[in-house]
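Continuing the batch. This is chain 6 of the set; chains 1 through 5 are on the previous pages. Same settings as before, nothing changed between runs. Recording input and output for traceability.
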Amino acid sequence: MAKPVLYQFPVSHYCEKVRWALDHKKVDYEARNLLPLFHMPVIFRRTRQNKVPVLKLDGRYIADSATIIQTLEERFPSAPALFPKEESEREEALEWAAFADREIGPHMRRTAYYFLLDHPHLMFEILTEGQNTVGRMAFRTSQRMVIRAMKEGMGITERGYTRSRDRLIGALDRLDNALADRSYLVGERFSVADLTVAALLSPLALPPEAPFQFPGEIPPELQQFLDEFAERPSVEWVRRMYREHRGRPAKA
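Output for chain 6:
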């Protein structure tokens, strides 16, 4: 079998979902780090859509992080399973994963970038992670256009931030309640539910085991935001999931 190829942005928490699943399954893969905006023709040519992550597996290009994880579970069933065997638990795990994709992923992204986009040097380092000199030079010439496109595409405004912050708090409230008397979201073992929730909340918890680490000093306004949630039971749970289950580092 040809080595799978993951097309990704290193900073993306949706890409981190897939990296974690690949590492959990002990799949040897190649990561191809793309530049925002420049990635569009590369990805569209292969999938007829513009979003990462995309995984090339067995000659097919698979888009959407949830679909990729489902495919990995089917392709590598003998590796450590991410989907519970019991049907009711499997459905519950998938419901939690869908909840995280909907109520955590986009809102975590919008709130984080709300504080970061006004720091051009920091954004340059974040978005060019893993790029060579040529890639970094190419990105520098288009950075203003990329930032403008990110603001428009993600709805990064004060109103958008406030709405996403409220949604994120609601999701954390639900998680705090669910985790009050259990170690895992479903059953007694790590599953796709835990992986998805923890990966999508990783920008809030900043676990040291995460492959992508913040480059340099965190802006004070973002640090204040992170500090608001640092003592949440669900945020500490994310750190524990990373300590106990992240496995070998993803390749960059």
